[in-house]
Amino acid sequence: MDARVAVLASGTGTNLQALMDDPVVGPWVVLVLSDRAEAGALERARARGVPAVFVDPAAYPDRASFDRAVLSELRSHDVRFVAMAGFMRILGPELLRAYEGRIINLHPALLPSFPGAHGVRDALAWGVKVTGVTAHLVDEELDHGPIVAQEAVPVLPDDDWDSLAERIHEAEHRMYPKAVRALVEGRLRVEGRVVRVLEEIPGTGART
Questions:
Q1: Is the dihedral of CA 160, 39, 149, 107 positive or negative?
Q2: Does 86 share its domain with 51?
Q3: What CA–CA distance (Å, rounded) separates 84 from 105?
Q4: How far are the Cα atoms of 53, 123, 132, 139, 178 from residue 65, in angstroms, in the given order?
Q5: How many CA atoms lie within 13 A of 191 on its CB side?
Q6: Range with lowest mean pLDDT among 109-113, 129-133, 138-142
Q7: Strand 5-8, strand 29-34: pairing
């Protein structure tokens, strides 16, 4: 199994940390890439001895050029799968084609509700009683690809952004390593928008 994973992150990297701390997924992480030089995710990667790369969007004239620079880094590290963990840029068609079906993203809401950059804030503003987290395959539309896994998180009457975000993060850290593992192990069967997650690794009989 060619399990070489790059993690794309723009922020503090708590979900990256959850992936690196997972006994199965952690050894697969061979690159951490960020669009922000000061991203905490890069420091977490360096502390673990994982190559950490900053690709500066300001150094490129357009998104396509930035995407090609990211793609070049992925290829130079022989990356087979991409896990987005708070990466705040939309990937373009060229990169998506190169890794079609092999890019997964984590979103802090129960998609298709509350897509975009403010899932926690939007859930609070709408007054929903339940929100959650979603792992999904990435396509050319924002927060749109087939859903791999979801976990519900209740919204409590006295929640504010901080308290709800904390429980959202806890759910993310539980769920995302499992979703990444299922992708890398070839246990996802995609039929249109429906994703089935197999319990056994195909061709081995090994149960997860």
A1: positive
A2: yes
A3: 5
A4: 17, 34, 34, 19, 33
A5: 3
A6: 138-142
A7: parallel
Residues 48 and 4 in one domain: yes
The C-alpha atoms of residue 51 and residue 60 are separated, in whole angstroms, by: 22
Residues 82 and 166 in one domain: no
Instruction: Examine the domain organization and report whether 137 and 66 are in the same domain.
Output: no
Catalytic residues: 107
Q: Count how many domains the chain has.
A: 2
**103-107 and 81-84: which strand pairing?**
parallel
Which of 100, 135, 165 is the C-terminal boundary of a domain? 100
- Domain end, chosen from 100, 128, 156, is at 100
Look at strands 29-34 and 52-54 and give their pairing: parallel
**Residues 113 and 96 both lie in one domain:** no
Distance CA 23, CA 90 (A): 29
Among 83, 73, 69, residue whose Cα is nearest residue 5: 83
For 2, what's the count of Cα atoms within 13 Å in the CB-facing half-sphere?
A: 7
Tell me: cis bond preceding 157? Omega within 30 of 0 counts: no
**Helix and strand counts by DSSP (H, E) for the chain:** 6, 9
Q: What are 141-174's pLDDT values in tens digits? A: 888 899 999 999 999 999 999 999 999 999 999 9
Full domain range(s) for residue 113 = 106-208
